[in-house]
Design a protein that fits this description.
By secondary structure, the protein is an alpha+beta fold. The protein contains eight helices and 18 strands. The strands form three sheets. Strands 1, 2, 3, 4, 5, 6, 7, 10, 11, 13 and 16 form an eleven-stranded mixed sheet that branches. It has a five-stranded mixed sheet with strand order 8-18-17-14-15, with no helix packed on it. Strands 9-12 form a two-stranded antiparallel sheet. Strand 1 (4-9) and strand 2 form a beta hairpin. The longest helix has 10 residues, at 38-47. Bound molecules: 2,5-dioxopentanoic acid (DO4) and magnesium ion.
Length: 283
C-alpha cells in the first residue's frame, strides 16, 4: 500500500498518493490530521475524492509548514555524536557531565521547541540569533503523534541551535533553541501504512553561494532510544489535544569551527519523506 503525503498549501490540504493528487474537502488541518489510524482513515477519504490532476506546482509555490495547532517538542542527546559535541561545547562551563548522564539515563531529554508561530516550512527562511556567533542546523526525523499518543506519521525537522549560548550554560537551552524562526518542518506530513524503515537515512547539505560547505548523513537506526519510548515519556503528564510533533534528536553535527551565515542554504532529506530546504537569515 502506497504511503500518503499531506501538504498544507494556501489553497487547502493536498493529499498525494503515488501519482495522484487530491484536494481534501476538509479545510481544518487539526481535524484532518489528528486521527488515530490516520493511514487507514486517509485511504478511506481518498476513495471518496476525485483526483485533481497534477498539483505539484501548487505544492511548490504555495507550501506552508505542515502544522496548525500542534506544538513541536524535541528530544536531545539521542545519538552519540550529539552527546560528544555537547560535552565539548560546554566543557569550560562544567556542564559536560549532564549530557553524558542523560544519554544513559532512563528518562530522555525532552524540551518544548515551538508553536506554528515560530515555525517555517520548506522554501522559507530559518533564523540565527543576532546575539549568537555559533549556529548550526540539527536535521532530525520528526514524529507526528495524535492526541491519543500513537505515532501516525513523520516529517523532516530542523532544530536550529545556537551552540555558544547552550555551551555557556545548559540552563540557557530555551534561548539557544526557541526563538523566532528556530524551527523548520516539512515539506509534508508523511503517513505510511507501516512504521518508517529503521535503516532510513537522514542527509544534510549546507551550501554557501554555490559551494557545498558541509554534508553528512546518518541512519535513524543509530539512535539510542526507541520512538515509542520518547513518545511515552512525552505523554506521561502532558496532553496534546491537537496532536504533537516530536523531533527525535540529531546525529549530524558539523565540526566545531563551522557556523552558519546569512544566505546559507540548508537541505535536509529523508528517504521517502522528501527534502526540507531553507535559507538562513539574521533579520
Ligand atoms: O541538550 C541539548 C539539545 C540536544 C539536541 O537538540 C539534540 O541532540 O538534537
Ligand atoms: Mg536537536
Amino acid at each position: 500500500m502506497q504511503a500518503i503525503k499531506i501538504y498544507k498549501t494556501r489553497k487547502g490540504i493536498v493529499i498525494n498518493q503515488g501519482d495522484d493528487f487530491f484536494l481534501s474537502k476538509e479545510s481544518d488541518w487539526d481535524t484532518f490530521v489528528n486521527r488515530r489510524d490516520l493511514f487507514k482513515k486517509m485511504s478511506g477519504d481518498v476513495k471518496g475524492l476525485k483526483a485533481n490532476g497534477d498539483l505539484s506546482e501548487e505544492i511548490a509555490n504555495n507550501l506552508a509548514a505542515p502544522l496548525s495547532g500542534q506544538e513541536i517538542w524535541a528530544a536531545g542527546v539521542t545519538y552519540l555524536r550529539s552527546r560528544e559535541a555537547r560535552m565539548e561545547e560546554s566543557k569550560d562551563a562544567g556542564g559536560g557531565d549532564f549530557y553524558a548522564k542523560v544519554y544513559d539515563a532512563d528518562r530522555p531529554e525532552l524540551f518544548f521547541k515551538a508553536t506554528a508561530y515560530r515555525t517555517v516550512g520548506s522554501g522559507e527562511v530559518v533564523r540565527i540569533r543576532k546575539d549568537s556567533q555559533w549556529n548550526v542546523p540539527e536535521p532530525e526525523l520528526t514524529l507526528f503523534v495524535c492526541s491519543e499518543g500513537t505515532i501516525e506519521g513523520y516529517t523532516i525537522g530542523n532544530d536550529m541551535s545556537s551552540r555558544d549560548i547552550e555551551g555557556e550554560n545548559p540552563l540557557y537551552l530555551p534561548q539557544a533553541k526557541s526563538y523566532n524562526g528556530s524551527a523548520a518542518i516539512g515539506p509534508c506530513l508523511y503517513v505510511p501504512a507501516e512504521p518508517i524503515h529503521p535503516e532510513s537515512i537522514i542527509q544534510l547539505e549546507i551550501k554557501r553561494q554555490t559551494a557545498l560547505i558541509f554534508s553528512g548523513e546518518i541512519s535513524i537506526n543509530r539512535m539510542k532510544r526507541k520512538h515509542k519510548e520518547l513518545v511515552d515519556y512525552l505523554f506521561r503528564e502532558t496532553s496534546f489535544p491537537k496532536g504533537v510533533y516530536l523531533m527525535t534528536g540529531t546525529g549530524i553535527v558539523p565540526p566545531d569551527h563551522f557556523t552558519l551565515q546569512p544566505g546559507d542554504e540548508i537541505k535536509i532529506a529523508i528517504e521517502n519523506i522528501g527534502t526540507l530546504v531553507n535559507t538562513v537569515s539574521q533579520h
